[in-house]
Design brief:
This is ATP synthase F(0) sector subunit c. Keywords: Membrane, Transmembrane, Transmembrane helix. Belongs to the ATPase C chain family. This protein is mostly helical and 147 residues long. It has two domains: 1-62; 66-147, Up-down Bundle (F1FO ATP Synthase), CATH 1.20.20.10. Helix content is 86%, strand content 0%. It is built from five helices and no strands. Helix 4 runs antiparallel to helix 5. The two termini are 25 Å apart. 4% of the residues are buried.
């Protein structure tokens, strides 16, 4: 059973990460400042994820049970497999979003100039979306290999 402090800490971390972005969402900061803040918050997020993994790994080492080695080997390996699956899905979806964000306006512009460019331009948009599907497939393979 989780203690109230263990339930409250993730909420506090989430509030601390999102609190500086309030002015960005209100439109009171410049675009350059917003980009710097977003990059710093993404770096902070990944640092917190790594810190959480490190904290949970050290907490697992401190457990006092009869067969600690057998339980830790399976749980840490399985947990890292789930993290790898989440990263492959998330980063491929992020890459696909960037690709579609660049290809879709260009496809619309090409289509508006010449109606025959529709098929050619949609291929590039579909290729960008295919990246997310490949990442999802890789994460499914990772999860089924760990089970």
């Amino acid at each position: 059973m989780l203690s109230p402090l263990e339930l409250l800490i993730p909420f506090i971390i989430l509030v601390l990460i999102s609190l500086p972005l309030v002015n960005v969402f209100r439109g009171k900061t410049s675009v350059k400042s917003a980009k710097v803040r977003m990059v710093s918050h993404i770096c902070l997020f990944f640092a917190l994820v790594l810190g959480t993994v490190f904290f949970s790994a050290t907490k697992a080492y401190a457990a006092e049970t009869a067969d600690v080695a057998d339980k830790m080997a399976g749980s840490i390996g399985q947990g890292l497999g789930f993290i790898a699956a989440a990263l492959s899905t998330g980063l491929s979806a992020l890459g696909a979003g960037i690709a579609v964000a660049a290809a879709a306006p260009a496809a619309i512009g090409a289509f508006s100039e010449n109606k025959e460019n529709f098929g050619k331009s949609m291929i590039f948009v579909a290729l960008g979306e295919g990246v997310a599907i490949y990442g999802l497939l890789i994460s499914i393979f990772i999860i089924f290999m760990k089970l």
